[in-house]
Amino acid sequence: MIPYLFLFAYFGGVFACLWKYFVKAGRPAWEGFVPGYNLLIWLKLSGKPWWWIFLFLVPGVNLLVFMILNVNISIMLGEREFKRPCDHGASCPG
Questions:
Q1: Residue 60 lies in a domain
Q2: Integer CA distances (angstroms), 81 to 22, 26, 41, 89, in order
Q3: What's the total number of domains in the chain?
Q4: Are the C-beta atoms of residues 29 and 23 closer than 8 Å to each other?
């Protein structure tokens, strides 16, 4: 019973985050709540090919794809930038 509660809480968090991402990207909010379709739209927003949806079925690879999509969508929405290591106050050679 307890693992199912964690699973439903996880899916609730994913749907809520995708809903916010889609609204910020100018897509309708309902697309974040449709399982499977939300992954397809998420791939489209991230600029990845549609067949990457099959990578979510491979254990281990799905976690990597999930991280790649999160980074790509945050860059696309302007929430994340590429920074040089020297930009954080560290001393740079040369």
A1: yes
A2: 20, 20, 23, 16
A3: 1
A4: yes
61 in any annotated domain: yes
Residue 85, domain member (yes or no): no
Instruction: Output the DSSP codes for 14-48.
Output: HHHHHHHHHHHTT--GGGGGSTTHHHHHHHHHHT-
Residue 82 lies in a domain: no
Instruction: Compute φ and ψ for 26, nearest 5 degrees.
Output: 90, 15
pLDDT digits (tens, 9 = 90+) for 31-46: 888 888 988 998 998 8
- Residue matched to tokens 């609204």: 23
Residues in the chain: 94
pTM over 0.90? The answer is: no
